[in-house]
Recover the amino acids of this structure.
């Protein structure tokens, strides 16, 4: 086991955009699901998704129907949307390239920390993706919808009996940052050149995970 002589004991990772380059896959899937509603609706759907990447697809579908389509969403239609979305994204997400440095970091350092996935992707789907990518072994536990990110972090801190200051959340969404901030957990944002979410937020910002271990050692 790798010995890590630093204060951080627990690492939380979002998945899309943090472990895998899969954010655009989800964007295309939302666009395809609503293309029959016309270009204006697709534009609104994609814009909302892009600004709220950490929100579950369940909540997004309900939001789209209430605020963009202005019609009720039946249980049958809701389930159909969820099933279609999963089919559209599953294989692509499984085969998506890693964010630079992610695979190397997990292989090299996962024995030195307790690592957790905290994602808005449905629980069973997230676990299947990790199994098919053969990386589920790196994570002590996987959290997905319907558990919220704040709930997942709070439960982990309690179960691991670890102080918030001894943990770090690595995310790319506002919901990741808010969960970390509310619970006093250190936060690193993974940002792209086009990122605007974290422009006005004072936190560590990385373009990839190549230097994550160095940033951890500074904490």
């Amino acid at each position: 086991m790798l010995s890590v002589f630093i204060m951080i004991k627990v690492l939380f990772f979002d998945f899309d955009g943090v472990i895998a380059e899969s954010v655009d896959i989800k964007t295309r899937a939302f666009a395809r699901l609503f293309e029959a509603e016309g270009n204006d609706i697709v534009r609104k759907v994609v814009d909302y998704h892009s600004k709220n990447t950490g929100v579950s697809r369940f909540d997004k579908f309900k939001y789209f129907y209430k605020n963009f389509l202005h019609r009720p969403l039946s249980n049958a239609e809701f389930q159909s949307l969820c099933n279609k979305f999963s089919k559209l994204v599953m294989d692509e997400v499984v085969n998506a390239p890693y964010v630079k440095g992610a695979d190397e970091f997990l292989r090299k350092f996962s024995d030195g920390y307790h690592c957790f996935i905290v994602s808005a992707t449905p629980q069973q789907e997230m676990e299947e993706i990790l199994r098919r990518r053969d990386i589920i072994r790196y994570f002590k536990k996987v959290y997905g919808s319907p558990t919220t990110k704040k709930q997942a972090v709070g439960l982990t801190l309690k179960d691991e009996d670890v102080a918030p200051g001894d943990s770090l959340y690595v995310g790319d969404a506002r919901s990741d940052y808010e969960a970390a901030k509310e619970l006093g957990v250190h936060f690193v944002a993974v940002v792209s050149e086009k990122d605007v979410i974290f422009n006005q937020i004072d936190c560590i910002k990385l373009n990839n995970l190549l230097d994550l271990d160095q940033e951890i050692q500074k904490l």
Summary: Residues 75-95 form the longest helix (21 residues). The two ends are 22 Å apart (CA to CA).
